[in-house]
Amino acid sequence: MVDSYLSRARRAAFAVGLVFMTALGAAPAQALNIPSAPERPHLEALYEAVIHIGPTRSLGHGPNGERRVMPITGGTFKGERLEGEIKAGGGDRQLIRPNGTREQETSYEMKTVDGVTIKVRNETVVHDDLTGSAPYAMSYIHLSVPAGRYAWLNNYVVVGTLTPIPDEPRSMLLNAYRVMP
């Protein structure tokens, strides 16, 4: 189970790092002298979600840090092509590493206004930015959607940013973006 978690965490970190490295102007293909490098990907807004969370419960300390869990109690999401509610019952499992970096594995369901259930799994890394500005909080978001109106969501890499909502201490703002060529 630990190997599976580490493998998923490495894939997520690679995907998020590659997307944001590329978005910031790095050109790995040019450095490798690849003659026909693909265009730099860009991010297209997909949806914005307000996620409500319950109290944090510690699961104890281990060799890699403190384990915590927080229930997801609901919320809403809205984008140009989809909107609906975040269902209560999901959860956010966290590992707080000794250096303060937080790894989060979040799993929940979103239900669209027309009744389609979308399974969501976020893998997020959160830490204080070394420049002293806002904390770094980037997610790899895996969406699992049944056949039909929203099936197109299964065909994209989705990344996101996570931000606390100042006036709502038990809520987070997730901005989701699909990576486009």
From TrEMBL:
It comes from the Bacteria. This is DUF3237 domain-containing protein. InterPro entries: UPF0311. The keyword NADP does not apply. PANTHER family: UPF0311 PROTEIN BLR7842. Keywords: Signal. The keyword Signal applies. It comes from Larsenimonas rhizosphaerae. Residues 1-31 form the signal peptide. It holds the Pfam family DUF3237.
